[in-house]
Design brief:
The chain has 249 residues and is an alpha+beta fold. Helix content is 37%, strand content 13%. It has one domain: L-fuculose-1-phosphate Aldolase, CATH 3.40.225.10.
Length: 249
């Protein structure tokens, strides 16, 4: 279902749409999403709107697949196209966090196990993942919707509950489902999604050797502040890897 906007505003910057297409392709190329998962960015002209692809595999997204949404998850220019069921993840986090301008929701395989093991929290193990902070919160959908759901964020009520659990963190694990990571820019959110999976792999490997030493809270903060000034470096590399495929379409 589409809805007209009562006060039309300028369209999003073309470069922002291009970057959102690249973000979808990069996340697929890096193994963070497969046929499922999604990435969004807040509208650069209207903070009460966000951009998200139509319901499709992220690795096949093109410019023509990007749709504008209100924070309620209503497609503004959908044209009757199918949209992601879990678009409420994005709308409700944007509503609650004015500092967030991009969101990645994924089921990356090494991260997901940390959502179901109670006594092993996901924590930053290396300097590249200082954004994880001291410890990652876990959203337990049973606490807000009982034990008979399909674990999906199907409406604004569940999206709001997820946003509350995220709080001021950069990442929230979703028990038995996956994770959602946020960032001040699209490039930050993609970087954090990639290095969350990398950190999970490293943490799993370290646990096989013995007791791990994690970053302290101050180390994590310093690493995040300094290393994320270099965000353009991985973005340029990842973009180059998928550029040829996008240009052929």
């Amino acid at each position: 279902m589409s809805a007209s906007h009562p006060n039309p505003i300028a369209p999003p910057d073309a470069a922002l749409i291009d970057d959102l297409v690249y973000a979808n392709r990069i996340l697929f190329d890096q193994g963070i999403v497969d046929a499922f998962g999604h990435v969004s960015v807040r509208h650069d002209k209207d903070p009460n709107k966000f951009l998200l692809a139509r319901n499709m595999a992220p690795g096949t997204v093109t410019r023509g697949d990007i749709i504008e949404f209100s924070l309620d998850g209503v497609p503004i220019d959908g044209g009757g196209r199918a949209v992601y069921l879990e678009r409420f993840i994005h709308g409700e986090i944007y509503r609650s966090r004015q500092d967030v301008h991009a969101i990645v929701h994924s089921h990356s395989p090494t991260v997901l196990p940390f959502s179901v093991v109670k006594n092993v929290p996901l924590r930053p193990l290396c300097h590249m993942s200082g954004f994880l902070g001291k410890e990652t919160p876990v959203f337990e959908i049973r606490e807000v919707a009982g034990d008979a759901t399909d674990l999906l964020i199907r409406d604004s009520y569940l999206g709001s509950a997820l946003a509350r659990k995220l709080g001021n963190s950069t990442l929230v694990l979703m028990r038995g489902h996956g994770s959602t990571v946020v960032g001040p820019t699209l490039k930050h959110a993609v970087y954090r999604a990639v290095y969350t999976e990398a950190n999970a792999c490293l943490q799993l490997e370290a646990s096989r050797l013995g007791e791990a030493i994690y970053l302290s809270e101050k180390e994590a903060d310093a690493a995040c502040r300094n290393i994320e000034t270099q965000i353009e470096r991985p973005w340029a590399l990842w973009k180059k890897r998928v550029q040829d495929d996008i240009q052929r379409r």
